[in-house]
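Task 17 of the worksheet. Students: predict the tertiary structure of the chain below and write it out as C-alpha cells. Keep your answer in the requested format; marks are given for formatting as well as content.
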Amino acid sequence: MRLTNQVYGVSNDLIDTYIERVTVDEIFIKGLQKNKHIIVYGASKQGKTSLTNKHLKEQDYVKVNCSPTSTTLDIYNSIARQLNVEILDSHEVTTTIGGEAKVGLKAKIKIPFFGGADAETEASASTEKENGASFKVIDYNLALAQDLSELLRNVNFNKRIILENFHYLNEEIQKQLAIDLRIFEDYNILFIVLGIWREKNRLAQFNGDLLDRVIEVPVEPWERDDLKKIVSEGLPLLNANFENIVDYIIDSCFDSVGVFQEICKESCYAAGINETSENLVEITKKNVDAAILKKLEDYSSRHTRCLESFVEQKARSSQEVPLYIPYYFIKVLFQETIENIIQGLKRKPLQEKIKEIHHRPDDVRPSDMGYFLKNLVASQISKGISPPIFDFDNSTSSIKIIDSTFYFFIKNCDREEVVSDLALPEGLQL
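Model answer:
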C-alpha cells in the first residue's frame, strides 16, 4: 500500500517514481568514482537533490545548506561542527590574503591522535590522553581552505561535502569557493555543488583552473520518454493508468519534471486516488484539467507575490530617479511568445524593447542594462524570491527562466490581468 504523495509529486524525500537516466545518473555515478568535484545544475525542481538522495546514503556525505548571508567561514565552520570535533577555544582573526583582509576563526581543536611521523613533527600540535585514548590539540583558521583540509585529513575524513543552494551565495563568496575548490582537490576533499543555473562552466568563470577538474551534471532536459517512464513506474504502485492522457500532461508541463510530478499527483487526487487503489483507475482529461487548475492557483499566488517584489524599486538617494528597469522587463516578458521565453531573451533586443515602452527611453543605456543583468539573481534573493525566477546566461547573453514552474504559470495565466494588477513601483508616474 502506497500513498499518492509517496509515488508522485515534489518532495525532499526520494519519490517512488524516480527514474535513472543515462545522461544524468551514469555521469554522476562516474563522478563519484573519480577524484573530482561534481557540479549538478539546472532549473529548480528538476531533480538535483533527488539525484544525490538516490546515489548517496546519509552516512556518505556532510551537507551544508547555503543561504544569502552565508560566508566561507560559516560553511567551513558548519563542516567542522558536523564532524563532532571538539573546539576548545576560538576567536576571530584577520588575515591578509592578496592584499585583502579576511576575517577568520582561529580555533584550538581537539582531535584523535593516531601517531606517525607526520603528526609528531607538527610544531603547533600537542598531545594528551583522556580515558586511555590519545588526542592532539591544533590551532586552525577555519576560514582557510588549506587549514580545513588539514583538519579533515587529520580526522580521516572520506565523505563527500554537499553544498546545497549554492546559487543563494553572493557572487564574491561563490568566487572564493571556486578558488578554494582547487585547494580542496589537492587534499582529495571532494565537493558536490548543487545550483540553479543553466549555463555550463559557471564556476570555471570564477576560476579557470577548474576547467577539466570538475565533472558537470546538467539535470535537464527531460525527454518525453523519461516522463512516460515515470507514469509506467507509478502504474503498479497506485493502480492508476495515465496511458491515454500522458502526452496531454507532458505538453502542459514544458519538460519540467517537478510540474509533471505535481500534475500526476493532483490528477490522482481528482480521480479519488489517495493511496493504492484496489481496482485499476483510468485517469481522464477531466482529472488532468482539474489538476492543472489546482497547480495554476498554487503557482499563481507565489509568482504574483514574487513579481510584485521583483518590480519594486526605491531610489537610493533623494536626488536619484530610478529607471525601473525590472518593471519594464516584466512588461516586455509578458508580451513575448512562450517560444521566445523558453529560448531566452537576448540582451540587445531586450534593451530595445524596453526603450520602446519606457517613459525615458533615451536614458536606458547599455550600462544600465548591464547593472540590471549582473545583479539579476542577487536582487531576487535579497527580495526573498526563493528560488530565483530569472538568471542571466553569459554564454548566450540572454535571460533564462530558472524556476521551472514559471513556464507553466506564464503559459496558463491571464497575462494582461497579471501585468495590470502589478502595482506601479513607488515614484513611477506614467
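Marker's comment: The two ends are 59 Å apart (CA to CA). The longest strand covers residues 100-112.
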